[in-house]
Design brief:
Number of domains: 3
Bound molecules: zinc ion
Number of strands: 22
Helix content: 25-40%
Strand content: 15-25%
CATH topology of the largest domain: Alkaline Phosphatase, subunit A
Structural class: alpha/beta
Length: 413
């Protein structure tokens, strides 16, 4: 057991000692023990890149990394989009195995397109149990002030405490609620808490990864985390804190209008085309026509993107490990770093979604610090391994751990 219980011993011993008049066994002091467990708080700073952490050195995050557990980089999974990565962090498996393979994708069997948060109305989009579901199943209370799909009833389970996602909820309201949860009586207190900040991601997208606005957003989140920790210290509340981001960020060089590489008439003939900015997913049963489209896309590529039929998908995308083939597209167009596809024009300065092997800018962050966490610097590791750490810190049993999840061995007290 790695959690060291903090024991508050409310003892009648002193009183008993003062009335030592019988030396028999029944005069033993009455001891009441209240065990206080240490909760684990998982924070996501959406879109904070490893490059930005190194370059701008936000005060509190840098200090937490310096005194706690950190890594050269947290490696996101493909595609480096928000929902696939957040869900890999909390399930310990690749997107093809938890089911959310992109922020937007088509399922042939359902004949529906998934969009972010869709598990709220149809939980069957999710094929793997997040850590909070496993926790609740094992009688360990979980709480979430936002995390992708945490407000959905997955596998018949919701966190004991959660909020439906509202983008505009003030960031301090989130951490204030986390403090309130940590102050609950032991029997009601959640042992696993997640929360999430989107302002760094938004500022990056809107103004670019080196913009004053992005730096300001990083400073703001860093300040909020600093205030959160100061408040906890003042209240004498100890936690294990795990801070991650889901992906990095890269400024955009070139925008491709979708109809400039595939004619609208060709799109109309396809079973399905889903434009996902850095990827285009195509489903089409008829191989002959699919090959025609494949060739057309290749001819128009001009080294701005790569085109793959299912049989050519790179192995590290892990799409061959899907629980079912229904949500794996027949063809993927994968944008090269700095390139995006647009079906209709919108203004954006930076993005993510690229294959990590093509650009280090997609690297994310991981910092852990707290009661049970030692000071250590880890080599780069993939975000699917964070799950095993969360399970260990919260004493939640997991069936199978991802290979090499022993990367945290020796890093915990
Ligand atoms: Zn994101």
């Amino acid at each position: 057991m790695i959690i060291q219980r903090i024991k508050f011993v409310l003892s009648a011993g002193i009183l008993a000692v003062s009335v030592v008049c019988h030396s028999s066994a029944e005069t033993k002091p009455v001891i009441t023990e209240i065990e206080k467990s240490v909760s684990t708080v998982l924070i996501s700073i959406d879109g904070l890149s490893n490059e930005q952490l190194r370059k701008y050195k936000p005060k509190n995050l840098t200090e937490l990394a310096k005194t706690g557990l950190s890594t050269e980089a947290l490696l996101p999974v493909y595609p480096t989009k928000t929902f696939p990565n957040h869900l890999s962090i909390v399930t310990g498996v690749y997107p093809s195995q938890h089911g959310i393979i992109h922020n937007k994708f088509y399922d042939v069997e359902k004949n529906q397109v998934y969009s972010m948060g869709a598990a709220g109305t149809d939980p069957s989009w999710m094929k793997a149990k997040p850590i909070w579901v496993l926790a609740e199943e094992q009688g360990v209370k979980a709480a979430s002030y936002f995390w992708p799909e945490s407000d959905a009833e997955l596998f018949g389970v919701r966190p004991s405490y959660y909020f439906p996602y509202h983008h505009d909820t003030p960031n301090r309201e989130r951490t204030n609620q986390v403090i309130k949860w940590l102050e609950l009586p032991e029997s009601q207190k959640p042992k696993l808490i997640t929360t999430y900040f989107s302002i760094v991601d938004s500022a990056n997208h809107d103004f670019g990864s080196k913009s004053a606005e992005a730096i300001e957003a990083i400073t703001e989140v860093d300040t909020i985390i600093g205030e959160f920790l100061t408040t906890l210290a003042a209240k004498n509340i100890e936690i294990n804190l795990v801070i991650v981001s889901d992906h990095g960020m890269l400024d955009i060089d070139e925008t491709i209008k979708l109809d400039s590489v595939i004619a609208p008439e060709a799109v109309a003939k396809l079973d399905k085309l889903v434009e996902g900015q850095t990827q285009i997913f195509i489903n089409h049963k008829d191989c002959a026509y699919l090959n025609t489209v494949y060739q057309q896309l290749k001819n128009n590529a001009q080294e701005r993107y790569e085109v793959y039929l299912k049989s050519e998908f790179p192995l590290h995308w892990q799409l061959d490990k899907a629980v079912s083939d229904n949500y794996v597209p027949d063809l993927i167009v994968n944008a090269n770093p700095g390139v995006i596809f647009q079906t209709k024009h919108y203004k954006t300065a930076a993005t993510h979604g690229y294959d990590l092997k093509d650009t280090d800018s997609m690297e994310a962050i991981f910092i852990a610090n707290g009661v049970n966490i030692k000071h250590a610097r880890l080599k780069k590791f993939q975000n699917i391994h964070v799950f095993a750490l969360l399970a260990e810190l919260t004493e939640v049993k997991i069936d199978k751990q991802p290979a090499s999840s022993n990367i945290f061995k020796g890093a915990l007290k």
